[in-house]
């Protein structure tokens, strides 16, 4: 079992930056690929970014490519999402998701609101 706790959400102006963190419990963090998803009001949850177990591979949704950066620190059991050049359409609850084979765990989410 992996428990995930996101933090770093809040209110930010358009064009601004925010860094989200997701802290994981357990000693097997480095064996999980880590992901960020988001869900805007009235919309389905959508993929944002993923990072491989060692941090060597990353992949982004087209909507955030070039603006968001995912990273991880396996020594701290934490994955980050650096969000730059934020837009009002980035407003959503951001969720951390850990997966390994058929296992998957979600965090509780953190709200990011971007004002215009």
Please supply descriptive tags for the structure shown above:
mainly beta; four-stranded antiparallel β-sheet; seven-stranded mixed β-sheet; 116 residues
Explained architecture:
The protein is mainly β and 116 residues long. Helix content is 0%, strand content 53%. The chain is built from no helices and eleven strands. It has strands spanning 4-7, 10-13, 18-24, 33-39, 46-51, 58-60, 68-73, 78-83, 92-100, 103-106, 110-115. Strands 2, 4, 5, 6, 9, 10 and 11 form a seven-stranded mixed sheet that branches. Strand 9 and strand 10 (103-106) form a beta hairpin. The model has no long low-confidence stretch (mean pLDDT 97).
Instruction: Quickly give the structural class.
Output: mainly beta
What value does the Rg take, in angstroms? 13 Å
Shape: globular
Reported for the largest beta sheet, the result is: 7 strands, mixed
- What fraction strand? over 45%
Average pLDDT level: 97
Q: Span between N and C termini?
A: 40 Å
Query: Can you give the helix content as a percent range?
Result: under 10%
Number of helices: 0
Counted beta strands? 11
Q: Name the helix and strand elements from N-terminus to C-terminus, one letter apiece.
A: EEEEEEEEEEE
Low-confidence stretches: none
Structure described in brief:
The chain is mainly beta and 116 residues long. The protein has strands at residues 4-7, 10-13, 18-24, 33-39, 46-51, 58-60, 68-73, 78-83, 92-100, 103-106, 110-115. The chain is globular and about 40 Å long.
């Amino acid at each position: 079992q992996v428990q995930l706790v996101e933090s770093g959400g809040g209110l930010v102006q358009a064009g601004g930056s925010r860094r989200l963190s997701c802290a994981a419990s357990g000693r097997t963090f480095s064996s999980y690929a880590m992901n960020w998803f988001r869900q805007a009001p009235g919309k389905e949850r959508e993929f944002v970014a993923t990072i491989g177990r060692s941090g060597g591979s990353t992949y982004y949704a087209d909507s955030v490519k070039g603006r968001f950066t995912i990273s991880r620190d396996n020594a701290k059991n934490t994955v980050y999402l650096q969000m730059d050049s934020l837009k009002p359409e980035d407003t959503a609850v951001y969720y951390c998701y850990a997966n390994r084979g058929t296992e998957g765990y979600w965090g509780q989410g953190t709200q990011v609101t971007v004002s215009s």
